[in-house]
Design goal:
Blueprint: H1 2-10, E1 14-16, E2 28-30, H2 32-51, E3 56-59, H3 67-72, H4 75-78, E4 80-85, E5 92-94, H5 98-104, H6 106-116, H7 120-127, H8 132-136, H9 141-144, H10 148-158, H11 177-185, E6 202-205, E7 208-212, E8 220-224, H12 229-234, H13 236-243, E9 249-258, E10 273-283, H14 288-305, E11 313-317, E12 329-337, E13 340-351, H15 353-362, E14 368-370, E15 375-377, E16 380-387, H16 388-399, E17 400-405, E18 408-413, E19 424-428, H17 434-448, E20 453-455, H18 461-470, E21 475-479, H19 481-484, E22 494-499, E23 505-509, H20 513-521, H21 525-532, E24 534-536
Parallel strand pairs: 3-9, 19-20, 19-21
Antiparallel strand pairs: 1-2, 4-5, 4-6, 7-8, 9-10, 10-16, 11-12, 12-13, 13-16, 14-15, 17-18, 21-22, 22-23, 23-24
Helix pairs in contact: 2-16, 6-7
The structure holds glycyl-adenosine-5'-phosphate.
Length: 537
């Protein structure tokens, strides 16, 4: 992840929020290229899920909603995560994230390294002589008082002793990490930061409270929405009446959501302010299971369509005890992020829970009149719910490649052309040649009418190519002396197109440039290369 964070800052994809004030850990700002990338993710999602379908319409509901919405939805009562704190260093953690944080902590890795040597003298030294333990986890019981007697007792219980080692503690090195931690730290619940003993987990609400109005005390108390979904449910009847849609049909929305996450982290993966891309797809009860499966398949196929490698995504079915209070079945699409497999999108069968709840709390019927049976019914809902920030991060991570080209490292973002922030970079071979510069600038302006194109003459051509590779620009167009002609030869009115992935170059006439660009944007580079012949690779 460090490489992605560093590239993001260096090239203007994503910046730390309020960085000049020391930063706000849970928020990130999208820079000039990041906003293009994220907008492309949202645009493609909208196009594929709304504009290309007959059975979908869009919505853009307000972030602030009536406080009763959140009582009806169940968020006020139960939208919480268990949290735990360390009385020693004052840090807080989501209880189910402690283990991951601990495994990533420097002290745990350092202790594990000592353990993995299999020599207990190393572990003892970690705690006592080298002072590594005292520096990294000063409050860890094992560091404060390295108790080898206890280790021995647990070791004996776990594995019958066949012969004492130098320390009389056989096979401790082969203990699973978690048991080993139990032994050395007295408890599984130790602080990832300092090794102190964590408090018992308690629920903490994830809702961000706000007061609307000039006087805080008397203002309307509500919440920043924790999901966009409820804006869709409360507008069900409005949309139905206005659009005259028949079941099955869906309402889609992209928008900000806010959660007071206890442990935001892993770059933009978990933040307190994020964007969701949600669909509530209303179906006849009884057809819900079939539609649920259709949406799981549809959404699972969407990510590879824009470049995510198939081996990097998987489906994970929720266990019964993991299901949200409203869900009959949920499947998550997970992506292999640098920190491991994690949720990218959830696809839930929410049954008729939400419409029923809002009908009860608001007193307004939220029903559908079924022409066939002449009965009023409450539809079931299938909800594919994706994160715009998480998807953007997954596309970025998946596109990142490091290669060696002629003994030098090439960093390249192999982003799908539809996702790439810049589609075409027009580069003059000689920036001191007025004719070349003029032609290149005119070309940029022409190409911009269809694609986001930029002109760049701030470095040598090799460097310019590398810079564009690093930000994922799929094609560079180079204008040179042959294009414009000189006293030795007349203009050939041709330019070079360079393909980012293969680094191959073809020469095409200016007259056919636009149609050729369309072909290569559509993934037909090999066809174009064959037609025109590769001039350089
Ligand atoms: N309406 C259902 C719902 O909100 P969710 O699984 O809590 O379900 C859906 O959220 C998606 O929103 C997640 O799969 C993830 O992509 C994104 N998401 C949720 N919490 C997030 C956070 N704290 N930071 C970034 N993205 C988040």
């Amino acid at each position: 992840m460090d490489k992605i964070v560093s590239l993001s800052k260096r090239r203007g994809f994503i910046f730390q929020s309020s960085e000049i004030y020391g930063g706000l850990g849970s928020a990130w700002d999208y820079g000039p290229l990041g906003v293009e990338l994220k907008n492309n993710v949202k645009r493609l999602w909208w196009r594929d899920n709304v504009q290309l379908r007959d059975d979908m319409v869009g919505l853009d509901a307000a972030i602030t909603m009536h406080p009763r919405v959140w009582e009806a939805s169940g968020h006020v009562a139960s939208f919480s995560d268990p949290f735990t704190g360390c009385p020693n260093c004052g840090r807080h953690y989501r209880a189910d994230h402690v283990e991951e944080a601990r495994r990533n902590s420097k002290w745990w890795q350092s202790l594990k390294e000592a353990k993995d040597t299999g020599r207990w003298a190393e572990v003892e030294r970690w705690a006592k002589s080298d002072k590594a333990g005292k520096k990294l986890a000063p409050n860890l019981a094992f560091v404060r008082n390295p108790d080898f007697g206890k280790i021995r007792a647990v070791g004996d219980n776990l594995t019958p002793v066949s012969g004492p080692t130098a320390y009389g503690m056989p096979n401790l090195a082969s203990l699973p990490d978690e048991m080993f931690l139990d032994v050395v730290a007295d408890s599984k619940l130790v602080c990832p930061n300092c090794g102190g003993k964590l408090s018992d987990p308690k629920p903490a609400s994830l809702m961000l409270k706000i007061a609307l109005g000039p006087v805080e005390e008397t203002g309307t108390r509500t919440y920043l929405r924790p999901e966009t979904a409820q804006g869709i449910f409360v507008n069900f009847d409005n949309v139905l009446q206005a659009s005259r849609k028949k079941l099955p049909f869906g309402i889609a929305q992209i928008g900000k959501a806010f959660r007071n996450e206890i442990t935001p982290g892993n770059f933009t993966f978990r933040t307190r302010e994020f964007e969701q891309m949600e669909i509530e797809f209303f179906v006849l009860p009884g057809t819900d299971e079939e539609w649920h499966q259709k949406w799981i398949d549809e959404r699972f196929a969407w990510y590879p369509r824009y470049g995510i490698r198939k081996e990097n995504i998987r489906l994970r079915e929720h266990e019964k005890d993991e299901l949200a209070h409203y869900a009959k079945r949920t499947a998550d699409i997970e992506y292999l992020f640098p920190m491991g497999w994690s949720e990218l999108e959830g696809i839930a069968n929410r049954t008729d829970y939400d419409l029923k709840q809002h009908a009860e709390y608001s007193g307004k019927a939220l029903e559908y009149f079924d022409e066939e049976t002449k009965q009023k019914i409450i539809p079931y809902v299938i909800e594919p719910s994706a994160g715009a920030d998480r998807s953007t991060l997954a596309f970025l991570v998946d596109a990142y490649h490091e290669e060696e080209v002629r003994g030098e490292k090439r960093v390249v973002l192999k982003l799908h052309p539809e996702l790439a922030p810049i589609k075409i970079a027009v580069l003059p071979l000689l920036k001191k040649n007025d004719q070349i510069v003029k032609t290149a600038k005119k070309l940029t302006a022409d190409l911009r009418k269809r694609w986001y194109a930029v002109y760049d003459d701030t470095a040598s051509i090799g460097r310019l190519y590398r810079r564009q590779d690093e930000v994922g620009t799929p094609f560079c167009v180079t204008v040179d002396v042959q294009t414009v002609g000189d006293e030795k030869a007349p203009a050939d009115d041709k330019v070079t197109i360079r393909d980012r992935n293969t680094m191959e170059q073809v020469r095409v006439s200016l007259a056919t440039l636009e149609s050729t660009m369309q072909k290569v944007m559509d993934g037909k580079w090999a066809e174009v290369a064959q037609e025109h012949g590769i001039v350089r690779a």
